[in-house]
Design a protein that fits this description.
Helix content is 19%, strand content 30%. It has 772 residues and is α+β, with helices and mostly antiparallel strands. The protein has four domains: 238 residues, Immunoglobulin-like (Sandwich), CATH 2.60.40; 284 residues, Glycosidases (TIM Barrel, Alpha-Beta Barrel), CATH 3.20.20.80; 58 residues, Sandwich (Immunoglobulin-like), CATH 2.60.40; 92 residues, Golgi alpha-mannosidase II (Immunoglobulin-like). The protein has an eight-stranded antiparallel sheet. Strands 3-13-14-20-19-16 form a six-stranded antiparallel sheet, with no helix packed on it. A six-stranded parallel sheet has the order 27-24-23-22-31-30. A hairpin with a 5-residue loop joins strand 6 and strand 7. Helix 5 packs parallel to helix 6 and helix 8 runs parallel beside helix 9. It is globular, with a radius of gyration of 28 Å.
């Protein structure tokens, strides 16, 4: 939202006020409150007119500073509020100097000018981050007398802005106008399913606007030297989040708003669905699953989309008897084949559903201001929307889900949650404008906690489309309705990269596109990308996604990458645990791992899977891919090719290949099982050691499916000698693989040599291994 017309002029009809200077202030043990009038006060007479800004600076914990700004404080509090963490008893350091007041939170500090013009400057370890100067902060009165609070924070030369949710526009947000407002718009526009009022920059800080409603961002657009954000009303709140690097900023942001729970290991396997409007019944489903088994393609989850329920009855949580006459027997049969079950749900209730009258009678739906139930024919006939601010409605909805869980359902696809009206009344009096975005938090929280209650902690997973800040606590999220095209495949990745920089650790997408039918070529390329994501699902709208409907090679390609992912699970699951413990996502933009490499600032067609694997999907029919490799000697783990970094590369790849590079000075643990994602990762694990530089020490850890560390090794290189030390060991057999290393001597192990390198089988009683 723009308020000005360039540097000098304010838009016609808008009155815009700015704090001029610090007139007075109060300091307590944990905060600073500043009073800043909109004019320079030089005489008593000038104190008779406002407006006056009230600003409070505080800190919830180290390296985070909270800024609260009021014009009028007499407004009603409007629920809902984002949940955020505050360390009990925490107090920042507050110092009152002659020229300024300084609030220090860990290594982050804000300096507030006491003399001269209004100004606040932020530093991390004395490194300048950003500032708010005179005429940055503003209070605007619009021509219709609507009030807005507006803030601006400076951008430095070369500073790039990222995040703001799952956005399909350019990865770097500079030059964009972004409104935080969830919409069901697919992946082709500026609309987004997952809008997060948080951005992070390559300068090493983040900004979280603490408002669940519509926040309008002007990112180097209205003013190319600043990021601007504005909200309607008399109050604005945001957090400045510091860190030693971008990863550390994400750690602090997710400490504030919540970190993802660890999804069950089985959820990392291959998901197959019925697709949406295809014709399917029990025979179809069984043929798909049996077809995968017959072709030796490991399948781990089967998803029933909307039409598992009778059409026009969504949701009633009852199987359509004409299509699935014996659902309990069917699910038991699928489970005997080792398949987990997912079913589609949404928070809307059709007037034809038997749940409608029940919900109406008990007051479980959103209402109009006149007390009638809010209804629409858009999606389902006369549908109502469950009011998750009503605790009894949550219990009612949860009870229906638990009946499905007892039947054998393992997880739910929590679709929709974006089409939430604002002309409604909520049970708890929440503001409908703020609830538009926040609704999805309550919806997914209810479903996720239902699964936890029924199946136990660590066994819950949803497949969610909509999100707001905090929804990262309830994984997994997928990218919505993409098209079957290379362009849509690329925009899907952009969305995932942007979302990952908002603390979302686990992300998926519809392999081969949702809308229309993919070509065999696109199907096979997207399979490689999809199986090298944290979660992998074949799903479509009007087309089935079983590979044999594309061509026989698609069968082989899907088998190859599914089995590769299963073997990579010790590595991937370790990255997953890192997401839950630190808030660092599994899918990582290059800039997150290489913030000091200028070539990585804009890269959005490649990514890091965890901290050690570079993935560059192929986005062209001719098989060519152009990608950038940072400094060092990298290794393609599929071919063994050594690649010198610090440059761009152009390569041509077949369908069983793509750039999948191990970072130098890393260890990639690979498992011994290629048929499922949930197994004993430590048993016969192979630690693949890639190009250890002289003087380097590298560690690697293998977790079990509960996330606990089982095996940990340390590798050190001194000249031509490599020492391998077992730090933690379960006495299960394990080995090392040295790519392209000729071993002349070793002690404590035996060696097997192949055309790519040497496998070292470590003896059970060996604690330190010397390799020459």
């Amino acid at each position: 939202m723009k308020f000005t017309e360039g540097f000098w002029r304010v838009k016609k009809g808008i009155k815009l006020y700015h704090p001029a200077h610090v007139y007075d202030y109060e300091i307590t043990k944990d905060s600073i409150t500043v009073y800043a009038p909109a004019q320079f006060i030089t005489s008593r007479g000038q104190t008779l007119q406002g407006p006056v800004f009230t600003l409070r600076f505080s800190s919830p914990f180290d390296n985070v500073i909270r800024v609260q700004i009021w014009h009028y404080k007499g407004q009603k509090d409007k629920k809902p509020y984002f949940e955020f963490y505050k360390e009990e008893g925490y107090c920042p350091l507050i110092e009152d100097f002659s020229d300024n007041i300084v609030i220090t939170s860990g290594k982050l500090k804000a300096t507030i000018n006491k003399k001269g013009e209004w100004g606040v400057t932020y530093y991390y370890e004395d490194k300048y981050l950003t500032k708010n100067s005179y005429k940055y902060l503003g209070y605007a009165i619009m021509p219709d007398n609507t009030a807005y609070m507006r803030e601006q924070l400076s951008l430095s030369v070369g500073e790039c802005v990222y995040g703001l949710g799952e956005r399909f526009t350019s990865f770097v947000k500079n030059g964009q106008t972004v409104d935080i407002w969830n919409e069901d718009g697919g992946t082709i526009s500026e609309k987004a399913y997952k809008n997060i009022p948080f951005y992070i920059t390559n300068r090493g800080y983040g900004v979280f606007v603490n408002d669940p409603g519509r926040v309008s961002f002007e990112v180097a657009s209205e003013n190319v030297e600043r990021v601007q954000f504005s909200v309607e009303g008399e109050y604005l709140e945001y957090f400045i989040i510091g860190g030693s690097n971008m990863k550390n900023v994400l750690e602090n942001y997710t400490k504030l708003t919540g970190r993802p729970q660890l999804p069950p290991a089985w959820s990392f396997g291959l998901w197959l669905t019925t697709s949406f409007i295809t014709n399917y019944d029990e025979k179809t489903v069984t043929s798909f699953i049996d077809g995968m088994i017959e072709r030796d393609i490991p399948l781990h989850v089967f998803h029933f989309d909307c039409f598992w329920m009778k059409d026009m009855h969504w949701v009633d949580f009852e199987w359509d008897k004409e299509v699935f006459p014996e659902p309990f027997k069917m699910l038991n049969g699928l489970k005997e084949k080792g398949i987990k079950i997912c079913v589609w749900i949404n928070p809307y209730v059709s007037q034809l559903s038997k749940l409608f009258d029940e919900g109406k009678e008990k007051g479980y739906f959103l209402k109009k201001p006149d007390g009638d139930i809010w209804q629409t024919d858009d999606w389902q006939p006369g549908m109502a929307i469950v009011d998750f601010t009503n605790p009894e409605a949550c219990k009612w909805y949860s009870k229906k889900l638990k009946e499905l869980i007892k039947m054998g359902v393992d997880c739910f696809k929590t679709d929709f949650g974006e089409r939430i009206p604002t002309d409604v009344v909520y049970f708890d009096g929440s503001d409908p404008e703020k609830m538009h975005n926040y609704y999805t938090y309550l919806y997914n929280k209810t479903v996720y906690e239902t699964l936890e209650e029924a199946l136990g902690k660590g066994n819950a997973v949803v497949f969610a489309r909509s999100a707001t800040a905090g929804n990262q606590k309830f994984p997994v999220h997928w990218g919505g309705d993409c098209l079957a095209s290379y362009e849509s495949m690329a925009e899907t990745l952009r969305g995932g990269l942007s979302l990952s920089l908002c603390g979302f650790g686990f992300w998926s997408h519809d392999i081969a596109g949702f809308e229309s039918t993919a070509t065999p070529d696109l199907y096979k390329r997207w399979v490689a990308f999809g199986l090298l994501s944290s979660h992998s699902r074949l799903h479509g709208n009007s087309a089935y996604k079983v590979p044999w409907l594309y061509d026989e090679e698609a069968v082989d390609v899907l088998r190859f990458f599914t089995k590769l992912k299963c073997r990579l699970m010790p590595y991937i699951f370790s990255a997953a645990v890192q997401a839950t413990e630190r808030g660092i996502p599994v899918l990582r933009p290059m800039v997150l791992e290489f913030p000091d490499d200028l070539a990585c600032l804009y890269l959005d067609r490649q990514y890091m899977l965890g901290d050690s694997l570079l993935v560059a999907p192929v986005f062209s029919e001719d098989g060519y891919v152009e990608y950038y490799v940072p400094e060092g000697i990298w290794t393609n783990i599929l071919t063994g090719e050594k690649i010198e970094g610090g440059k761009w590369r152009k390569e041509k790849h077949g369908y069983f290949s793509l750039p999948l590079l191990a970072r130098p000075n890393t260890i990639i643990p690979m498992g011994s099982v290629d048929t499922k994602p949930d197994y004993d990762y430590a048993d016969n694990v192979v630690f693949n050691i890639y190009h250890i530089d002289n003087g380097k020490t590298v560690k690697s850890q293998v977790r079990n499916i509960e996330g606990k560390a089982e095996v940990e090794i340390e590798v050190r290189r001194y000249g031509d000698v490599i020492y391998v030390t077992k730090i933690k060991d379960t006495k299960k057999p394990w080995s090392l693989y040295f790519d392209s290393l000729k071993i002349e001597a070793l002690s404590g192990a035996s060696v097997e040599v192949d055309r790519k390198g040497s496998r070292v089988n470590v003896y059970a009683d060996t604690t330190v291994l010397k390799v020459i």
